[in-house]
């Protein structure tokens, strides 16, 4: 029998979420961010479902190649831009737009051979200090891009938020985002062109940052990065169900220990289920005992250490037989809850699903 572990991708949820984000930012175009294989949901599958997006954002030129090979003709923006001069020819062939965040990229574009102009997204470092030109260098970079024959005339101005998941509130909450908005506005004042500021949390919590283009990733997949919330709190629907089956149910006596390093002790004689999923499938090993799962739709808990292929489940009070379905996350069990227990964010969990998991589209 095939391994029963599967990730079901709900393409209707992807479309629903795109609609929700459009409704929140009616004046903005939407760049659907599909980097990291569509946050682990499958690049081509996600892009087809989100065909109504105005553009796709990717982190690698190889992703742009895959999207074009799949027949998708929407604009594609390379979010980290080009890495070497030869990338310019590929960018032109594929009709890809490029973020320009560093002097080295500016120089490559200035020295590019004649050819089709590349549309550029000039990135301002408004305070995250990851990628982008310092505020005082933005005007010079913009002028040089405008003067470069390889660069198309309509340059977009963008930044990226470090803390937009913290919404504006009392006690100065949201201070960094307010400051980033101020720095970006000042650095770009008077420059022509569209603006793009907001990631998912920016769309959900910072309407003043919607601008001309929003760039949601996680929210499209139904995930929230706002602490203590789930996508459903924002009207979003999870796009992935991770599921497996019970492959054993064993009676274990009181005082016996479960799993590697014997980290969990049975408080009474009890049935212990074994589910065919582990960190080799991408389920987080850091998920502690007590992490929720659904067995036959009933709440149950992980016990002991998650191992590579398997996990143990406390089946006390649960009606279950070998072969019954176990849901690890999905619409009935928010992935954000699992992430919180494992000390990470939902994005990392969906991105970590491994190749042996069977993907199903629904
Ligand atoms: C990943 C990314 C996004 C999307 O972020 P989410 O939090 O998933 O919405 C937007 N813009 C840039 C530049 C990114 O790298």
The gyration radius over C-alpha positions equals: 23 Å
The mean pLDDT is 97
Q: What is the CATH architecture annotation of the largest domain?
A: Alpha-Beta Barrel
Distance between the termini: 22 Å
| Main sheet makeup | 8 strands, parallel
What ligands can be seen in this structure?
pyridoxal-5'-phosphate
Approximately how much helix is present in the residues? 25-40%
The CATH homologous superfamily of the largest domain corresponds to Alanine racemase
Provide the CATH topology of the largest domain.
TIM Barrel
Low-confidence stretches are: none
Helix and strand pattern? EHEHHEHEHEHEHEHEHEEEEEEEEEHHE
Task: Please give the order of strands in the largest beta sheet.
Answer: 8-7-6-5-4-3-2-9
Pfam family, one: Ala_racemase_N
GO molecular function: alanine racemase activity
Catalytic activity: L-alanine = D-alanine
Pathway: Cell wall biogenesis; peptidoglycan biosynthesis; Amino-acid biosynthesis; D-alanine biosynthesis; D-alanine from L-alanine: step 1/1
What does this structure look like?
The protein is of the alpha/beta class. It has two domains: 213 residues, TIM Barrel (Alpha-Beta Barrel), CATH 3.20.20; 122 residues, Lyase, Ornithine Decarboxylase, Chain A, domain 1, CATH 2.40.37.10. It is 26% helix and 22% strand. The protein contains eleven helices and 18 strands. The strands form three sheets. It has an eight-stranded parallel sheet. Helix 4 packs parallel to helix 5 and helix 6 runs parallel beside helix 7. The longest helix has 14 residues. The radius of gyration is 23 Å and the shape is elongated. The site of pyridoxal-5'-phosphate has 12 residues, from loops. Its cofactor is pyridoxal 5'-phosphate.
